[in-house]
């Protein structure tokens, strides 16, 4: 749980990753392609761009960036 505010988010994410079962070998996530802050955040934590997709919200379609990180 994020108890110390947004500044604690990177450490909270790393703790969550460390707590994953050993059989988890790779993480995959999507963020909106236009979310430059989010993309830099994930890249700074070892995630690499691995493709793109789209995500529908209501009647709108948005491009996404797919990121992966080997554990």
Automatic annotation (TrEMBL):
<protein>
    <submittedName>
        <fullName>N-acetyltransferase GCN5</fullName>
    </submittedName>
</protein>
<dbReference type="InterPro" id="IPR016181">
    <property type="entry name" value="Acyl_CoA_acyltransferase"/>
</dbReference>
<keyword id="KW-0808">Transferase</keyword>
<dbReference type="GO" id="GO:0016740">
    <property type="term" value="F:transferase activity"/>
</dbReference>
